[in-house]
Each structure stands twice: as C-alpha cells, then as structure tokens.
Amino acid sequence: MQRISQKIVVMGLGYIGLPTASMLATKGHQVLGVDVNQKAVDTINSGRIHIIEPDLDILVRSAVNSGNLKASTEPEEGDTFIIAVPTPFMEVDGNPKAPDLSYVKAATRAIVPYLRPGNLVILESTSPVGTTELIHRIIVQTRPELDGQIHAAHCPERVLPGHILRELVDNDRIIGGLNKAASAKASELYKSFCNGAILLTDSKTAELSKLVENSFRDVNIAFANELSVICDHLDINVWETISLANRHPRVNILQPGPGVGGHCIAVDPWFIVSSAPDQARLIRTARQVNDAKPHWVIDKVKAKAARFKEPVIGCLGITFKANIDDMRESPALDIVRELQRDQVGKLLVCDPNVSIDKVDFPLTPLKQLLKEADILLLLVDHAEFKDIALDTLRDKVVIDTRGVLR
Ligand code: SAJ
Known about the structure:
The protein has 406 residues and is an alpha/beta fold. It contains 14 helices and 14 strands. The chain is globular. The N and C termini lie far apart (53 Å). The chain binds ligand SAJ.
C-alpha cells in the first residue's frame, strides 16, 4: 500500500523524540523537531546528536541530509503533532511523588495556535491515566472552534535505552485514541515505520498499560534486590542462587543492582500509586525496596571503609545502567554523591561513557583507579568493567553490586 507522506511536528528532541523524528523523516515524512534547548536544535540541524544512543548519529545525519528533518525552538503547522517530553514527578499537597505534567501542558499550549481541523495530536510521553483527555481539554478550552475537529491518541513509547532504534521498529505499539477515528489515524502513521503489531485500545487503557509494563519490571527488580539483601544476611552468593533458581522452567528472576534508575522505571510506578494509593500496595512497596538499595550499598561501603585509616574508594560507573551515558535518577551517582558528602574516604570515580563536562567532580582513568583503590565499588556493569583482570583485585576489598567481578 502506498503511504502518504505527512508533515509531522515532534515536540521534544530527547531520547524518544529525536529517534522518532529521525525515523519518520527517513520514511519520507517532512518532520519538524521542536525543542526548548537551542543548543540541541543547532546540534541536530548540523546533523549531529546531543545524546548517546547506538547508531542514532547515523540516523539523524541521514534524516537531516535528506532535507526531511529540521529542528527549531518553535512549532509550525502540520498534519500530526507528537508530544515526547519528560513526565517526571514532583511534590504536590504532601505527596512527594505526584506526576509533573508541566512539560506536557507546555508542549500542548505551544502547539495550540498551529492546530487546524483534522489534525492528529499524539501523546507518546509516559503519562498518568487521563492525560490524553487532559491535553484534548487544553486544546478545546483555548480554541473552542476545534472541539470535535482534533484527533488525539496516546501511543506510549516502549523502547529500551541502548536499543532504541531496533525497538522503535520491531516493538508492538499500543494506540489508544480518544475515539476510534483517532486510533485509526494514528495507526496509519505508526504503520509507516513499525514492523511490530499495532494494537488499538482506548486512551486510558493505553496509559495504564504503559505504566503497568514498567511497574512489572520494577516489582521484579525489587524481588531480585530483596534477594540480594537476604543472601548477604545469610552469607550466600545471590548470583549463584538466582542462576540456579532460574533453571526452573517457570522462574526468571532479574538481576540485583545498586538500585533502580532512569527516567522510567524509578518514576512511572508512582503514577499508578498516585492514582490508586490504597490499592497499589505491592507497587508502592517495590518502589520502596528499590529506593532503599542505594542506602544499603552506602552502609556496606562505610563499614568496609572503617577498616582503613585513609581509604581510597574506586567507584566504577555513575550512569543509571550499562553502556549508556544517561545519569537520570541514577542510583550509582546518588551513591557516589553521598559517599563524597559524608567524606567516607578519598573517592576516585571512573565512567568511560560520561564526559568530564557532565559532572562536577573529576573522573579517573580505569587503569589509575585500579592501581590506587583500596575498596573497589562496582556500580554499573559497563562493558569496559567486564574486562577487568581478576588478579588486579587480589589485595582489594570488592563490593560488586552487579555481579560482574566474579
Ligand atoms: N535493572 C536492574 N536489574 C535488572 C534490570 C534492570 O537493577 O535485572 C535496573 C537498571 O540497572 C536500571 C533500571 O533497572 O537502573 C532500569 O533499567 P531497564 O533496562 O530495566 O529499563 P529502562 O529504564 O532503560 O527502560 C524501561 C523499559 N521498560 C521495560 O523493560 C518494561 C523500556 O522498554 C521502556 O520504554 C522505558 O523503560 C521507558 O521509557 O519507559
């Protein structure tokens, strides 16, 4: 079937917006990517990228060179508007983990003057139940003449950082329109670049499904993290325990770590808790278990450091997970900062994926850190750390939160 090329405005050029905008552009759509960050806009217009994600640089360069992708700080008129801005949490009326929809609202208000009858507005940002209805309300409250004329749908992003380009194409997509016409229209657009199934539903079910996916993972990681604390208490190797248990045909335990980070799994379950505080007991507890893990690691380091007169602590990794540069909600970074604040010892920090201008403390090359550290604290399982020769660890206290140095 011949697909019709559209003019698409993508609001937000971060980890989701930029890959989506570039993918659409390489499929022949005319795409305007909009971001409040002028530096990011300039970088993209020169065919380069401002974030690290495998192969994204190639995709963006080809999208910009084709003339189909342009970036700007201001939206324009178009056929479809995709909102892909952050949805963090904030404190509201004593609830410290309430969803912060200010970016979604600001992006919606920014496109309102450019909307025309028949336009499609897609919310990709992970959002609490009811947000697609909210953006539609904002639109028609500002421009009542558009009531009944604008299609709105939620199409939650589901891509895994580190594998975004592959998952953008291969993953199934959920589309929840405010009505069937909106779902059908959005479905046509996603078919232009998705190989996965396109699954149609209503907007609230789509919103909750996305939150449920990340909560499922959070609960399962909490199980692994709780196991790691239990095993430590019983002096049993957690990695071996999990790997043995996972040999059961219906058991698949995830991996413990220093805590759960990132802008998704550490945040989204709270949106369910906020909507159903009395019902979401397991989901809330899982968040608390995962949020407690960094403090448990810090206590372990402090206990070991107390054995040294002037301990040198080598921290390996500060990103929220392996092989990316993203430090949002990173438990590793929180641990390093708290050890610095409490002056637990001389800290050496190494992260091969983080450039020096992204942090306000010095970074030490791996070789030097391995030479000088008394205590080695592995926080992120970056590929580079998997190659550390075990005989270099012989005289060191090793606290390996990821089970890499075995
Ligand atoms: N983690 C563990 N143990 C594990 C797996 C992960 O401690 O066994 C930790 C990671 O180190 C990291 C955190 O959990 O700190 C989250 O990492 P992740 O790889 O599980 O997930 P994200 O945040 O990179 O991406 C998730 C994905 N959701 C699911 O897998 C259900 C992705 O598909 C979503 O698109 C993304 O959230 C999002 O944007 O919502």
